[in-house]
Design goal:
The structure holds two protein chains of two kinds.
Chain A: H1 9-18, H2 28-39, H3 43-61, H4 73-80, H5 84-114, H6 118-129, H7 136-146, H8 155-160, H9 166-169, H10 175-200, H11 204-212, H12 217-228, H13 230-245, H14 249-257, H15 268-277, H16 282-307
Helix pairs in contact in A: 3-16, 4-16, 5-10, 5-13, 5-15, 6-10, 7-14, 11-12, 13-16, 15-16
Chain B: H1 2-30, E1 69-75, H2 80-89, E2 93-99, H3 109-120, E3 127-129, H4 135-139, H5 150-154, H6 156-159, H7 164-169, E4 171-172, E5 175-176, E6 179-180, E7 182-183, E8 186-191, H8 192-198, H9 206-219, H10 233-240, E9 247-250, E10 253-255, H11 261-275, H12 287-293, E11 302-306, H13 309-317, E12 325-328, E13 348-351, H14 358-370, E14 385-386, H15 389-400, H16 410-417, H17 432-444, H18 449-466, E15 470-472
The chains are: A mainly alpha, B alpha+beta.
Chain lengths: 314, 474
């Protein structure tokens, strides 16, 4: 599920707006027109793969199989399913672990790299980025081998952690951490590159001035750079939160590889999939999807309002 | 105000962008069919027959050779040689073969696929092979409504050559909706070489088997007499001992009673053996198992398992040398008579009622179940005992002279085929994952089977209720 971060047009626009850019600015209308030009190529995709499916899901969520409006009944039915609670619980534990790891390590590594000399920094950025080249499913396959003490190059580590068999590696309690590790491994590199780019936009003079005032590298990193890339961190958190709550590929593949030891409704997105395509309850499945959409939206609104992500300078 | 609106739009766009990319990975996962990692084998075992294996000379009915046109068949890896051989033998039929996970281990690949095809209104294959014997039960009902009338497709003169119990399993609401590829009674597989070397006699009752397990743990630690780590282990032990885990199925009623004596006594019998390591909670299809107990280690002393274990498991998967393995009759519970046994697999063929080439579809199933029988004396033999009587006879004859076995394994298999307990009914929901994710995970964590039985019963009840059943617990 971990995607290579792609800056959406909205974010690109934000990036344009959010930073103090030197020089005179034109008046609003011209800017809106130009901005529209940037957004235009993306619009058809947004409509076809974003807005229309969302409207379809919302319609399904409030209606019966025959299209009759039934209010929240699909939501209560899906909520009463015995797998609903556990699947959301799993996903929240996973998302919490993953986001914490992402914020601490990605920001930390980006700051450390930015303080290095050019060549070393670009080499490491490249190294961090490589795992991201493996698409979701492929990275899970790699990890299935990594977690199998019989074939893993890190067998001694698995032994230290008390796992001598593959079935012990994927014990139920380990799963949120394992999935978080897989997601981090494939996704973190891309975010390090993004944050490094963000750090590059900090005017050199500011750093210089701080140094003259007697700030060391640590102080500069924590008190100057960190606050200035706050918006990028917020952007990363919003996107990662939504991807995290929609976890699907990792538990699905581990379910098949473990011959069913990991339930096929481990995550809420899997539950929606099973409800729709195993039980034919498309409307209840849509309700679970709308639940996920709401959670993503609420989280995004909170983060956006708290961090001023889209606040304009003028 | 305007800013506020922009912000909302931007949030929405961001959320949608995420939703968009995650739904794309969702669909890619949805179409991932083969299980990952090394644990790729399924109850039907890996395929070993070469693609162009010639069909044996079974006393088959004359297959209609005038089939032609396009035909799409979905098969598991073990049935791939069969499908390829059909394509080679029938140049007039353009066969499109799709391999998938076989729906084994309680997967739900077929449910999800059929729902998608139904939703799309197209794309259905003509013929499907499933590793789950209970798949036809839901395939024949709403909302899936997929299975065509197999009796009509093959003709009653052909279908009458299957055992009645097999036909009963494939009959849903009075219609024969599938035909079993093979019969899969549970027998006791024995390593005769090791038994002789250790000076043991082959047990005939579960109690003797368990007592021998205690002895093995003391005198020959490391050797095993069975496993509880399969997704279908309860079909081996609990079906054999008449434990009502899916009994009295009528319409949408089912009895699930894990506190029945037949269940608790089996759990108590297994517990000390799981604890002493002679019946580990590990699947024979995992690389860990093969490494620990297979090949040169040769640590499998006995193993209750299905008829198709024959070469699929011992030869192809575990690489146990030739001349060691044979089968013994199913174990008896104390002095209880008649002796009953379980069943694992016996995958069915299903024809789609949406097929536009019914003739070729029927011809394919007919050929696969009544004609295809490559080299029954070698490693290329069909994995399981054919359901079709005349073919079973030639398969058993080949098996009897197969050099892989230490002794003729066929008498035990033949006898077991008639001893399958009939009180175990097939249901629409997969019960095997429930065993895997409630019991096996617990056993791996060191819990006792007896302590896990209530959770297992609870899991089964929840799965049954989710599938629309009313559950009775006694």
């Amino acid at each position: 599920m971990s995607d290579t971060p792609v800056l959406t047009p909205a974010a690109q626009a934000t990036r344009k707006r959010g930073l103090p850019v030197g020089g005179a600015r034109r008046k609003g209308d011209t800017r809106t027109g130009r901005g529209f030009g940037f957004v235009l190529p993306y619009l058809p995709f947004l409509v076809a793969f974003g807005i229309l499916p969302m409207i379809y899901a919302i319609t399904l969520a409030f209606t019966t199989r025959k299209g009759k409006f039934i209010g929240l009944k699909n939501f209560t039915q899906a909520g009463n399913d015995f797998r609903f609670g556990p699947s959301f619980e799993h996903v929240f534990v996973y998302t919490a672990v993953w986001l914490a790891a992402l914020i601490v390590f990605v920001v930390g590594l980006a700051l450390v790299l930015h303080g290095r000399a050019g060549r070393a920094s670009s080499t490491f950025r490249f190294l961090y980025y490589i795992p991201g080249a493996l698409a979701g499913a492929a990275s899970v396959l790699v990890w299935l081998f990594m977690l199998d003490p019989g074939v893993s190059p890190g067998t001694f580590l698995l032994h230290i952690l008390g796992s001598h068999l593959f079935v012990e590696s994927i014990a139920p309690g380990h799963l949120p951490f394992i999935f978080a590790m897989i997601a981090f491994w494939t996704g973190a590199g891309g975010w390090i590159v993004v944050l490094h780019g963000a750090l590059n936009t900090i005017p050199h003079e500011l750093e210089e001035a701080a140094r003259i005032d007697g700030a060391g590298p640590v102080t500069i990193a924590l008190r100057l750079k960190l606050p200035m890339i706050g918006k990028w961190i917020a952007y990363m958190v919003i996107l990662s939160f939504a991807t995290g709550t929609q976890l699907f590929v990792e538990p699905q593949l581990v379910n098949e590889a473990s011959l069913g030891m990991v339930p096929d409704t481990w995550s809420s997105n899997q539950l929606a999939y099973q409800l729709a395509f195993r039980y034919g309850k498309f409307n209840e499945a849509a309700a679970v999807s709308v639940d996920l959409l709401l959670i993503g939206l609420i989280a995004a609104v909170i983060i956006v309002t708290r961090t001023g992500l889209f606040r304009r300078e003028d | 105000m305007r800013m506020q609106r922009r912000m909302c739009l931007a949030v929405l766009a961001t959320a949608l962008a995420v939703a968009g990319c995650s739904s794309s990975s969702k669909s890619s996962a949805g179409s991932t069919n083969s299980p990952a990692g090394g644990a790729s084998s399924t109850p039907a075992g890996p395929a070993t027959a070469p693609a162009n294996a010639s069909a044996g000379s079974g006393s088959a009915p004359a297959a209609s050779s005038d089939a032609s046109g396009n035909l799409t068949v979905w098969v598991d890896a073990a049935r791939l040689p069969d499908a390829k051989a059909y394509a080679a033998a029938h140049p007039n039929v353009h066969v499109n073969i799709v391999t998938f996970d076989g729906d084994g281990n309680g997967a739900t690949s077929l449910q999800t696929k059929i729902q998608l095809w139904n939703k799309a209104g197209s794309g259905w294959p003509d013929v499907i092979f499933s590793e789950q014997v209970n798949d036809p039960v839901w395939m024949a009902q709403q909302p899936f409504d997929f299975a065509a009338d197999m009796g009509k497709a093959l003709g009653s003169s052909v279908t009458s050559q299957w055992p009645k119990t097999s036909l009963a399993q494939c009959t849903v609401n009075g219609t024969l909706v599938c035909i079993q590829d093979n019969l899969a009674p549970v027998v006791l597989w024995v390593n005769q070489k090791l038994m002789t070397q250790f000076g043991y006699t082959v047990p005939t009752t579960w109690q003797d088997w368990a007592a021998l397990g205690e002895k093995v743990a003391k005198d020959h630690p490391g050797y095993i007499i069975g496993t509880t780590g399969e997704s279908f282990s309860h079909w081996i032990y609990f079906w054999s001992n008449q434990c009502p885990l899916e009994a009295n199925v009528k319409d949408t009623n089912v009895t699930i009673n894990v506190s029945d004596t037949h269940c608790t006594e089996m759990a108590s019998l297994l517990d000390p053996l799981i604890k002493n390591g002679t019946v580990p909670p590990l699947s024979v299809f995992t690389p860990d198992f093969a490494k620990k107990y297979g090949g040169a280690n040769d640590k499998v002393l006995m193993m209750p398992g299905a008829a198709w274990y024959a070469q699929s498991v011992f030869d192809s998967t575990l690489k146990i040398p030739a001349g060691e393995i044979t089968s013994a009759p199913p174990l008896q519970w104390g002095t209880d008579t008649p002796v009953t046994t379980g069943q694992v697999g016996g995958g069915p063929w299903i024809i789609s009622k949406h097929s536009s080439n019914m003739k070729a579809a029927a011809d394919f199933v007919l050929w696969s179940t009544t004609v295809f029988n490559p080299d029954p004396t070698g490693a290329d033999a069909r994995p399981g005992l054919p359901g079709y009587g005349p073919l079973a006879t030639s398969w058993l004859a080949g098996m009897a002279t197969n050099k892989y076995f230490a002794a003729d394994p066929t008498p035990a298999i033949k006898a077991a085929a008639n001893q399958i307990w009939q009180g175990w009914d097939l249901v629409t929901y997969p019960d095997q994952p429930v065993w895997s994710n409630t019991v096996v995970t617990g056993l791996v964590a060191g819990k006792s089977l007896s302590s896990l039985m209530p959770a297992f019963g609870n899991g089964l009840s929840q799965a049954a209720k989710a599938a629309g059943y009313t559950v009775a617990s006694h």
